[in-house]
Design a protein that fits this description.
170 residues; mainly alpha; 2 helices; lipoprotein; myristate
Length: 170
């Protein structure tokens, strides 16, 4: 590892033999792991590293923690923004669905009113046809009555004329 701060998390565990630990593919001995587990004392130096290395290590750890915290905050913010986006999409789709339902209800109501209007018009036409039918039946009855009277009068006149002609020429 160089002088730059690493954002990679390191975890370690013991293998089957309990003497070598694998750290993300890197094998470490028990003594290295024990040194990593021990809290560092201010007077103690690790393999030639001084207090400056401890300060640098603390600084790097603080930077890594800050980076990790920033990453978690960023992820949380992304989740919140994504949640807000999903909520907006849900609201938008609900509004769209509500508008579509209202349009369909309005169209259905319009069709129902149109059907009622046509039914009333049909009933009105039916009444009008019945009225005309009654009128024409009445006119037909009058004409038949007149025709019968005319036939009767004509027949009587014919009979009278025939009787006169017969009486004159006897």
């Amino acid at each position: 590892m160089g002088g730059g701060g690493s954002t990679r998390r390191v975890t370690f565990e013991a293998d089957e033999n309990e003497n070598i630990t694998v750290v993300k593919g890197v094998r470490l001995s028990d003594s290295v792991i024990d040194r990593m587990k021990e809290p560092s004392s201010p007077g103690r130096q690790h393999r030639g590293a001084g207090a400056a290395n401890d300060e640098e290590l603390k600084k790097r750890i603080a930077e890594e923690l800050a980076l990790e915290r920033a990453r978690r905050d960023s992820e949380a913010q992304k989740r919140r923004l994504f949640g807000k986006l999903l909520e907006r999409e849900r609201i938008s789709s609900n509004e769209h669905l509500t508008r579509a339902i209202l349009r369909e209800r309005a169209a259905t109501e319009e069709e129902r009113q149109k059907a009622q209007r046509f039914a009333r018009q049909l009933e009105e036409k039916d009444r009008e046809l019945k009225k005309h039918d009654a009128y024409y039946k009445e006119q037909l009855a009058r004409l038949e009555e007149r025709s019968a009277q005319f036939y009767k009068v004509t027949t009587e006149q014919y009979q009278k004329a025939a009787d006169e002609v017969s009486a004159r020429f006897k």
